[in-house]
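wait is this the right file?? whatever heres the structure
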């Protein structure tokens, strides 16, 4: 500690000067320090780690008194004094580790009554599933501790003094990347009154999803803490795994990584969107992957291809009426080329289907599927350049229609 270091410097000065004012000052400091430490031992009688720290300080002070009380100390007295000073200093320097261990132990004791007997968690809607690894437990839903923290599931490792919260939220309008999301979380922590210092960021995976992990460190009321945050995406949702632990070190990070590795994530939205992209773009090649994802934000992502087509064509019809004159003229020419690739019967059916949707009429899944195939067959027969231009126009129309 700073006090021990200061006394060591005084002791060195006293030895160098031999006798006189410096020796007298060291003796006075040692005597007062010993008395103060004895008083502190009594005062902190209900807080054993602090008593141990004060006892170490007292031993150090006694060592100085043994060494310097007489101007010419014998070898035996000097040896005893040195042993006491070294032992006391070593004990006082290791005290912070003991206090951290006590804080971790006390926190763990407060967590144990809140643990659930359940060892597994599953949420089919979000695609999250977890079997708690050794040392970890799921906190009860009614646990009062951290009741105000929003989370799908909360976990704790009492022995390590560690808690973890897993949650999701919609992507904000300003969302840019996973690293940007981590930047926002770091700012939130600072705004809450903490002063976390970022240690590093690394790529990782959570189930089937690529993720980014950030490790942090901070101090609170003199105690060191460490934190770990992993973020990943599924469609328009941002998932967060946040952990905080008393103390720091590789063992804490290893426990967090073990929990992260145990988390299974099926990415239901991305899986559904990938399936919809494959099916709709095969059945109707005028739709692009971006268009399918725009449609997937308006209907359940796991919807059938006919529902994607119907919703997409409604959005395209709405958007077509809002494009500028130049785009409108080009789109009319492209749609004319598309209609020319249809037979008379198909052209009549598809025109009637389009007008019904334009008027807000209902259709059946069978009619949606039939119209999707009519349009898809005609689009597939277009020259490559014409189809590419048509895709761009339909993309624009769907984007505009989705905003209306």
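ok assuming it is, sequence goes like this
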């Amino acid at each position: 500690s700073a006090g021990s270091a200061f006394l060591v410097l005084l002791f060195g000065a006293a030895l160098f000067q031999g006798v006189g004012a410096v020796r007298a000052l060291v003796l006075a400091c040692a005597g007062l320090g010993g008395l103060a430490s004895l008083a502190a031992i009594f005062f902190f009688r209900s807080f054993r780690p602090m008593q141990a720290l004060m006892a170490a300080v007292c031993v150090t002070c006694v060592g100085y008194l043994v060494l310097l009380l007489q101007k010419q100390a014998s070898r035996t007295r000097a040896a005893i004094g040195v042993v006491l000073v070294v032992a006391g200093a070593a004990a006082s320097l290791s005290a912070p580790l003991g206090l951290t261990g006590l804080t971790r132990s006390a926190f763990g004791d407060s967590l144990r009554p809140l643990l659930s007997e359940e060892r597994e968690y599953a949420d089919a809607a979000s695609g999250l599933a977890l079997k708690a690894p050794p040392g970890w437990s799921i906190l009860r839903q009614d646990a009062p501790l951290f009741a105000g923290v929003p989370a799908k599931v909360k976990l704790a490792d009492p022995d390590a003094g560690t808690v973890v919260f897993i949650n999701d939220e919609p992507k904000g309008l300003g969302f840019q990347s996973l690293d940007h999301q981590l930047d926002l979380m770091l700012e939130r922590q600072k705004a809450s009154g903490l002063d976390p210092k970022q240690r590093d960021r690394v790529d990782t995976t959570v189930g089937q999803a690529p993720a980014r992990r950030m490790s942090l460190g901070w101090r609170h009321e003199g105690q060191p803490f460490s934190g770990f945050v992993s973020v990943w995406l599924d469609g328009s949702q941002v998932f967060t795994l946040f952990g905080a632990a008393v103390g720091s070190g590789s063992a804490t990070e290893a426990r967090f990584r073990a929990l992260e590795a145990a988390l299974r994530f099926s990415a239901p939205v991305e899986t559904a969107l990938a399936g919809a992209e494959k099916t709709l773009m095969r059945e109707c090649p005028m739709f692009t992957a971006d268009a399918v994802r725009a449609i997937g934000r308006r209907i359940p992502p796991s919807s059938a291809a006919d529902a994607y087509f119907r919703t997409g064509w409604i959005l395209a019809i709405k958007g077509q009426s809002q494009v500028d004159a130049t785009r409108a003229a080009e789109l009319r020419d492209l749609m004319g080329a598309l209609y020319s690739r249809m037979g008379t019967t198909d052209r009549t059916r598809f025109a009637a289907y389009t007008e019904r949707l334009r008027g807000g009429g209902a259709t059946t899944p069978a009619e949606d599927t039939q119209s999707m195939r009519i349009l898809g067959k005609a689009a597939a027969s277009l020259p490559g350049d014409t189809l590419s231009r048509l895709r761009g126009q339909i993309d624009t129309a769907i984007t505009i229609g989705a905003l209306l």
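The radius of gyration is 35 Å. so i think its the right one actually
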